[in-house]
Amino acid sequence: MALVLTHLGRERRGLTQDAKTKPIHATKAARAQMKSHPAARHVEMKRRLSEDREYHFQRGPLSLMRPAVFFDRDGVLNEDDGYAFDPDKIRWVEGAQQAVKAVNDAGYFVFVVTNQSGVARGFYEERHVRKLHEWMSRELAIVGAHIDAFEFCPHHPDGLIERYRVLCNCRKPQPGMIRALLERYPVDIDSSFLIGDKQSDVAAAQAAGIAAHLFDGSNLHAFIAPLLKDRPLHRVQPHSVRVDGG
Ligand SMILES: [Mg+2]
Ligand SMILES: [Zn+2]
Fold it and tell me: 130 C-alpha vs ligand 2 centroid, how far in Å?
């Protein structure tokens, strides 16, 4: 955490330049201020984390940055049988688990971004979506694969359930879910991509500045293998790079 935060807004706090090559030293005035208001400094840093993301992630320690693969869920990881939420009825797409493992092994983050309007429509509840994702994680663990984060959008503008009946910015083709993940993880955007099975997936990725590929529905591992660039330098412990304080 300290390593990350030293690079945030250093000019504003009166820190001297050139953090890339030299350790950062606070000026006398800044040291005095931090000493007298340590709590205030922490709050200020948290507030600045989001707006300074670009500055931090681009100029921060390179070892923190990793590319990511954003997977759509239904029709990419599992067969799209329509509003699936029961693990007993889930069928993995051929090569899906091996695909996630390959992405893990290549040093990328693995994220899932999925529209779940079945929640707004009253077909199932958010807890069912979470339970299914936990089940998927357990299944993946058996083959040594893992997903770093799931994001789902429970909304729909025509939903039955009132609190989910909204025009949100997370339902694809809006980029809200991807953007939320980019806020929380140090993602190397230029080397990242999304795999979807619909045009709305591609549109969401493009709106977030991420490359996208339309999955042809065959074998996901075979599809993704040529798209991955091995990044052995980036094989760090997946949880050591979180910057949202857990
Ligand atoms: Mg889909
Ligand atoms: Zn939404």
Answer: 15
